[in-house]
Amino acid sequence: MNPQTGQPVLTIDLRAIAANWRDLAARGAPGAVAGVVKADGYGLGAIEVAGALRAAGWPAWRRGWHCAPRSARVR
Asked: Is the whole-model pTM more than 0.85?
């Protein structure tokens, strides 16, 4: 809760997203594991989430996109 506004606050842990991707990819091996970022990631920041996934080893050929304008920015 934001103490000044009383509104809820959502904090995104990009390190946890990356760790989850690595864990799922390891569990799926030797098969291929795909990742999809939907539009703006439900308001979580598609650019930031995609960057964290790319840094974690998310292969380009396994990337799926729901929103073409944003997908061009992260490819």
From this structure: no
